[in-house]
Every structure is written in C-alpha cells, then in structure tokens.
Design goal:
With about 425 residues, the chain is mainly alpha-helical. It folds into two domains: about 5-55, Single Sheet (Rubrerythrin, domain 2), CATH 2.20.28; about 80-410, Citrate Synthase, domain 1. The protein contains 18 helices and six strands. The protein has helices at about 40-45, 80-85, 90-95, 105-115, 120-130, 135-150, 160-185, 200-205, 220-230, 240-250, 255-265, 270-285, 290-300, 320-335, 340-355, 355-360, 370-375, 385-405, and strands spanning about 5-15, 20-25, 30-35, 65, 70-75, 75-80. It has a three-stranded antiparallel β-sheet with strand order 1-2-3. Strands 4-5-6 form a three-stranded antiparallel β-sheet. A hairpin with a 4-residue loop joins strand 4 and strand 5. Helix 10 (about 240-250) runs antiparallel to helix 11, helix 12 (about 270-285) packs across helix 15 (about 340-355) and helix 14 (about 320-335) runs parallel beside helix 17. The structure holds carboxymethyl coenzyme *A. Carboxymethyl coenzyme *A (CMC) binds next to loops.
Length: about 425
C-alpha cells in the first residue's frame, strides 16, 4: 500500500505578504514533491499545470522512472534484467502482485490464463458487425468494455476477485486481439490452445490457418516476450492516468481499461509505433530521403513531428529504445530478414541525434521508434502495432487500477480550472439575438 513519505521539511509560499507552509514529500528514490492538497483551503489559490507535467497525482510503488538518467524499473527490478531473463507472464505477475512469482505461483497463474483464454461465443459474433477496415484499437476498446456484460460478477467486490479478474483480462485481451486480426482478414478465428505459452498461443491464434499450419519459432516467441515486457508499465503516462481517472469514479476494471486503450490509440502515445512505420515506409517509397522529414519536423510552421522521437519524461535515451534497437538487430539476424526500414531508421536516428534542434530539446528515440521493425519481422501487420502495445501495457493498467482502488487516500479525480470566459451576461431572448 503506497503511503506518503513526509520529510518533515516545509516549502514556503508567499501570497500578498502572507507566508504559507506546505509539507515536502520524498519518495524512496529521492524524488521530491510539495504537497499542495491544502493549498486552496489555505490560500484561495489553485495549482495551474496544464498537461500535468509538474503534478504528482498519486503515490505508487509499481514503476520507477528517472528521465534524466534513463532508468526504468518495475517493482525495483531493472527493466533490462527483466527483459533479458523473464517471460511476459512472469513480469505481468510481478506488476500485478508486487513480487516475482515462485515456480508454483507461476504455474497457478499460467493455469488461470489458460482457463480464461476463451471468449464467450456470443462475443465472437460482435466482430462481424464492424465495418471492414475498422481500426483494431476501436474494436479492442469496445470489446474490452463489453466484457463487463459477460462477466458481471466481477464488478461487485473487485479487490476480492482481483487475481481472477486480472488473469481473465490478460488472457482474454490476447484472444480478442488475435480474433480481431483474423476477422479483419476475413479468416476463421483460431481458438487458444492449452499446450502453448502465452506468447506462442497469441502467435498461433494470429497466424495458424486451415491451409497453412503455423510453426512456432522460439526466437520469435522470445522477441515477443521481450517487447511485451518492455511495454509492461510506464508509471503515470496518458493511458495509465486515464485508467486511474476513470476508475477513480469507482468504475469497473474492464471499463477503465477500455478507456485506457482509447487513450493509448493516439499518435502522440501508443499510436506512435504505427506512425513510425508509416513514416519509414513513406521515406522508403520516396527514395529514402529521410533528411526531408528531419527538416519538416524542425519547421515551426509544419505540424509534422518525427514519430518515435521525444518524450515527456526522458531527457536522455529511453532505456527501452536501446534494448529494442539491439533486439531488432538480433531478431532480423536470427530470422535472416533484411529490412531496408531498419537501415533508414538507424540513419535517421544518427542524423537527428547530431542535429542542433533535437540536441537542444533533448529529443531521443523513444520506445516506439524501433519496436515496429521487430513486429514487422515477425509478421504482425502495421494496423495491429498499437494493439500489441495494449497487450503489453495491460498488466500495468491493472496494477495501477488495483493500487488506486486500494488506496485509503483515494478521491475521485477532479481537476479544477481557471475560467477565462465571458463575465456574467444578461440573458438575451431568441428574437433579440
Ligand atoms: N519531432 C519534432 N519536434 C519535437 C518532437 C518530435 N517528435 N517532440 C517534441 N518536439 C519539440 C516540440 O515541438 C517542442 O519544440 P519547441 O520548444 O520549439 O516548441 C519541444 O520539442 C518540446 O516538445 P513538447 O511538445 O513540449 O513535449 P511534450 O512533453 O509535451 O510531448 C511527446 C512529448 C512524446 C508527445 C512529443 O515528443 C511527440 O509528439 N513525439 C512524437 C510522438 C511520439 O513518438 N510519441 C510516443 C511517445 S513514447 C511512448 C508512449 O508514450 O506511448
């Protein structure tokens, strides 16, 4: 249970000659915050912070991120160690339970994932009603929201059932994701198999077909595990904050995660992995002139941004991007897949990292810059990239929803505003307007 770490020190704020004291909080890694919860009551002023770049919305013991030093850890474990040594299922357990699973715990968790892998047959018919070319993220978000109709017993006493509910969601989202791909292809769905691991099962549901059985490639499975682990959580990002905010109104887990999926869809967030691939494909199709895109990104009159570059929190290399870049080389090597887009991406990165515009603004490649190249190499279509991000981020959303629900300091999320509209005006009847 996260709690506040008051340091005993106070910050002073002076308004109209009067000094007010506000307590200082220090986190376990030394991050400092001013607790402004009494600010309005004491001073009549509120804190103004559009985009929340300076706002801590909660205490959390799930993920630590140091954007200046490029450090990321889940529950105290360095992301590089987890990506190197764990499966995604182990990391999902870690995120949602707080500890790495023992052999027995892992086996019980895997059994639950297996038991919950099917989706209700009536839900499979939902897929038929979406128009062709419906964005998979829209389908995923609505299907996840629909789960609460099929498993309503889960909404009543959520924390009592949370382990079951988490396993159900983690397992079913994988099935929904694979089914949505099959349906988008006009192909029959492939049911989950009890004898396959989480990632192998997903790949089999995606690619097995009555006319061409899918052969499990362990290197592909390992690459997918790594990617999902690296996407597992990222503290209070846009989609996670959405899950927490929606959940703060005491909304069930499915609806909260469904809202998170919608937030992740945006091209400034998880949708960037698809945008990167589209950008690299465009560059490739038009003769490989990536410098033009770098110039466009720098032009203040052009809204274009280099997809997969920049981050609200990282002011140095994103540690995930470094691991993924290395994995890209390994996977393409293993699969003997020569992708010209990888060469373009590397050249583009090199040029951007030396460019004054990017240097001055601390813009580095983020998690989305290289991930799509691996997805492409293992056969995942571009339209599914952000769905893959959602699969990976799901244990993180669940962990945050659970932490928020269990927090004795919980209050409904409800920011304030500074009203800058018209002053009070006399009402004008219709025929006088
Ligand atoms: N290309 C060109 N310029 C950029 C970029 C970029 N990708 N990102 C930021 N800038 C510039 C921005 O124009 C601004 O310049 P100026 O100071 O001259 O106005 C400066 O850098 C600071 O940018 P900001 O918009 O204030 O930064 P932010 O923290 O609000 O936004 C971001 C962060 C990730 C939305 C932004 O960097 C961006 O749009 N990147 C491209 C989209 C992307 O890759 N998103 C994935 C993020 S990581 C994974 C995830 O969250 O899902």
């Amino acid at each position: 249970m996260p709690h506040n770490y008051y340091s005993g020190e106070k910050a002073e704020i002076k308004i109209d000659g009067q000094v007010y004291e506000l307590p200082i909080i220090v986190g376990t890694e030394g991050e400092k915050a001013i607790d402004v919860r009494t600010l309005r009551a004491k001073t009549g002023h509120i804190a103004f912070d559009p985009g929340y770049a300076n706002t801590g919305s909660c205490n959390s013991n799930i993920t630590y991120l140091d954007g200046e030093r490029g450090i990321l850890s889940y529950r105290g474990y360095d992301i590089a160690d987890l990506a190197e040594n764990c499966t995604f299922v182990e990391v999902a357990y870690l995120l949602d339970h707080g500890t790495l699973p023992t052999r027995e715990e892992l086996s019980e968790f895997s059994r639950m994932l297996n038991d919950f892998a099917m989706i209700h047959e009536d839900m499979i018919r939902f897929f038929d009603s979406y128009p062709p070319k419906s964005p998979p993220m829209a389908i995923l978000s609505s299907m996840v929201n629909s789960l609460c109709n099929f498993y309503p017993e889960m909404t009543e006493n959520p924390l009592e059932n949370i382990d079951k509910m988490s396993a159900r969601l983690i397992s079913k989202v994988r099935t929904i994701a694979a089914f949505s791909y099959k349906k988008s292809m006009g192909h029959p769905v492939v049911y989950p198999r009890y004898d396959l691991s989480y990632c192998a099962n997903f790949l089999n549901m995606m690619f097995d077909s009555p006319v061409k059985p899918y052969e499990i490639n362990h290197k592909v499975v390992a690459a997918l595990n790594k990617l999902l682990i690296l996407h597992g959580d990222h503290e209070q990002n846009c989609s996670t904050s959405t899950v927490r905010m929606v959940g703060s109104a005491r909304v069930n887990l499915y609806a909260s995660v469904s809202a998170g999926i919608s937030a992740l869809w945006g091209p400034l967030h998880g949708g960037a992995n698809q945008a990167v691939m589209e950008m690299l494909e465009n560059i490739h199709q038009h003769g490989g002139d990536f410098r033009k895109y770098v110039e466009r990104a720098k032009d203040p009159n052009d809204p274009f941004r280099l997809a997969g570059f920049g981050h609200r929190v990282y002011k140095t290399h994103d540690p995930r991007s470094r691991i993924i870049k290395q994995a890209c080389d390994d996977v393409l090597d293993d699969l003997k897949f020569a992708d010209p887009l990888l060469d373009i991406a590397k050249e583009l990165e090199e040029v951007a990292l030396k460019d004054e515009y990017f240097v001055e603004r601390n813009l580095y490649p983020n998690v989305d810059f290289y991930s799509g190249i691996i997805y492409r190499a293992i056969g995942i279509p571009t339209s599914m990239f952000t769905v893959m991000f959602a699969l990976g981020r799901l244990p993180g959303w669940i962990a945050h929803w659970k932490e928020m629900w269990d927090d004795p300091g919980w209050r409904i999320s409800r920011p304030r505003q500074i009203y800058v509209g018209p002053l009070s005006r006399p009402f004008i009847p219709m025929d006088q307007r």
